[in-house]
Design a protein that fits this description.
Blueprint: H1 13-21, H2 23-31, H3 40-49, E1 51-55, E2 60-62, E3 70-85, E4 88-95, E5 100-101, E6 115-128, H4 129-138, H5 140-166, H6 169-184, E7 185-188, E8 191-194, H7 200-207, H8 211-223, E9 227-230, E10 233-236, H9 239-248
Antiparallel strand pairs: 1-6, 2-6, 3-4, 3-5, 3-6, 7-8, 8-10, 9-10
Length: 249
């Protein structure tokens, strides 16, 4: 089935200027994504059909069961991805800068298989699937890059499943902290700040534990001098020792 075509507004001179002013923002977003190493021709073609958009809290990017219309490349902020099955909500993870959202549609799914909701304000590059399909048909470089991104997401999902089955809660928490620092880390006087404001309940859902257990384990890590807190955000004080502890847990 052919995807519904999207028709944009007719641009006057001001519209053209507005589109041009988005170019640096779109470049910034793409440079952090799995598509960063596209050839210049492929890169320009993709940026040419994409649009830059600010993301508001609680904004729905993808709705499970609704027609898939965009591939979203996140530039900043945090997005919650989840799936509902048999009346139960399954958290699939939180996506951040450089991540793709709605990538299952690239494989040809007509309807979205999950929902994605903005938790923290940010920005993103929206690539319409109607235009992306045409680029993929003509550009093997872009096809290879997106295929690699899909495989990487699959491997990440398998690793998370393996962690839930085989690792202790503390080991899962340590790996979560390391991954959060890689994705949302910012320099801080005490180390590295995880800028995304994860609650203990958020973390518990993502690592398959309880809020009470997460609170106890974070307190243990704080007493060990590995983490601290700044305005309810986690600060990784000693990333090297945190990694060593994760490897030995």
């Amino acid at each position: 089935m052919e995807r519904p075509k999207e028709r944009g507004p007719t641009l006057g001179l001001e519209g053209v200027r507005g589109e041009a002013s988005q170019d640096p923002e779109k470049e910034r977003i793409l440079s952090r994504s799995p598509l960063a190493r596209l050839t210049p021709i492929s890169r320009q073609a993709l940026l040419g059909i994409g649009r830059f958009e600010r993301l508001a809290r609680r904004q729905t990017l993808v709705q499970q069961g609704a027609p898939a219309r965009h591939l979203v490349v996140l530039g900043a902020g945090r997005v919650k991805v989840e799936r509902v099955a048999d009346g139960r909500v399954f958290p699939l993870g939180h996506r951040g800068p450089g991540d793709l959202v709605g990538e299952s549609a690239v494989a040809g799914a007509e309807l979205a298989s999950e929902s994605a909701t903005v938790l923290d304000e940010g920005d993103a590059l929206f690539v319409p699937l109607s235009g992306l399909d045409r680029l993929l048909a003509a550009d093997p470089t872009l096809r290879a890059a997106l295929a690699a991104a899909l495989v990487a997401r699959q491997l990440e999902t398998e690793a998370r499943l393996g962690s839930l089955l085989l690792c202790t809660v503390e080991a899962r928490l340590l790996e979560f902290l390391r991954a959060a620092a890689r994705r949302w880390g910012q320099p801080h006087a005490a180390g590295e700040l995880v800028s995304a404001p994860f609650t203990h309940a958020d973390i518990a859902l993502l690592i398959g534990s309880t809020r009470e257990t997460v609170t106890l384990l974070l307190g243990k890590l704080k007493r060990a001098g590995l983490i601290s807190f700044d305005r309810r955000r986690i600060v990784i004080r000693d990333g090297e020792h945190l990694a060593a502890r994760a490897a030995s847990t």
